[in-house]
Design goal:
alpha/beta; two-stranded antiparallel sheet; 19% strand
């Protein structure tokens, strides 16, 4: 189930592409006799829901969608077997900082008064939460940016995460697997993302493999339903009045399954539209994978031959 689950980053609802009958058969092969009805009841208890199709997409899904899902699952199993770190990364919805309405409700003896309009000009700033979720440790780290969501911002967050905590958690690791969406600051087509990742590899002598989720499948990225949804529930109905308020809500996000989250303010300027030349791209130690190379590739340190 762990490789076949998607979820809403706001509500926390989850769903799976496996049928109850298929899950029942797989459990039987593992020595557990569980009926499909019992599987359905257990899924509901785990916050899964039956979903119907909604005609809202204006484009067709990629014909390589299932192949990429299978490949991501294969890569995850390989890294898990070798006790190598696997992270899921993404940028959560940007938030206006100030007394603005935040969806949700809280127990209170009177309503919380907020601005009647969400004007950017009235905000104290914009919070850009870039999240890094360690799948095997069940630990998250969210870096709150104040400038722009760029590849340099994303990789600066990765560098801080590895230097401050992951390097000591995985002292013998020479490889890192990153699961990411196909767009945004970690876009599969971004030259700047790959260029900045090369700097990360060189600095920490790490080989980094990136697997991108296909277009229109971002909710299958584990960080969405295992980290971002819990943060959204924690601050639901509460105005995000200051950066300290946001950091505190992120840091106090926990779950019964043991999720713990750190938060750091990444208060620097990250300019947009940084151009990476063909010459710079040729200097990268970039190795596209045989399977769907547009979504799967590895970068090695400059001192290592791939």
């Amino acid at each position: 189930m762990v490789h076949d689950t998607a979820g809403d980053p706001i509500t926390g609802l989850k769903w799976t592409r496996k049928t109850t009958e298929k899950i029942s058969r797989e459990l039987l092969s593992a020595g557990l006799s569980v009926s499909r009805n019992t599987v359905g009841r257990l899924l509901k208890e785990q916050n899964y829901r039956l979903r119907v199709n909604h005609k809202k997409l204006a484009h067709a899904s990629s014909p390589h969608r299932n192949r990429q899902f299978d490949y991501i699952a294969e890569m995850r199993r390989e890294y898990e077997r070798n006790a190598l770190p696997i992270i899921s990364v993404d940028t959560k919805k940007k938030e206006l900082v100030g007394r603005f309405k935040n969806p949700g409700a809280v127990w209170s003896d009177s309503p919380l008064l907020v601005n009647d309009h969400d004007f950017r000009s009235e905000a104290d700033g914009m919070a850009i939460p870039y999240g890094i979720f360690d799948l095997q440790a069940n630990l998250g780290h969210v870096f709150i940016g104040t400038s722009h969501d760029t590849p340099r911002f994303a990789v600066t967050a990765l560098m801080a995460w590895w230097a401050d905590e992951a390097r000591s958690r995985y002292p013998a690791a020479t490889h890192l697997l990153i699961l990411a969406d196909g767009g945004g600051s970690n876009s599969s087509r971004s030259r700047a993302w790959k260029f900045e990742l090369q700097n990360f590899c060189d600095r920490f002598n790490l080989t980094v493999t990136v697997c991108h989720y296909p277009p229109a499948t971002s909710k299958w990225n584990p960080i969405e339903h295992r980290l971002f949804s819990e943060i959204s529930k924690n601050w639901a109905g509460q105005p995000l009045e200051t950066y300290d308020t946001i950091l505190n809500f992120v840091r106090t996000t926990t779950t019964a399954s043991g999720l713990r989250v750190k938060a750091t303010l990444l208060d620097g300027h990250f300019p947009t539209r940084v151009k990476i030349s063909d010459r710079q791209i040729k200097q990268l130690h970039l190795q596209p994978h045989i399977v769907l190379p547009q979504w799967n590739y590895s970068l090695a340190p400059a001192s290592t031959k791939m």
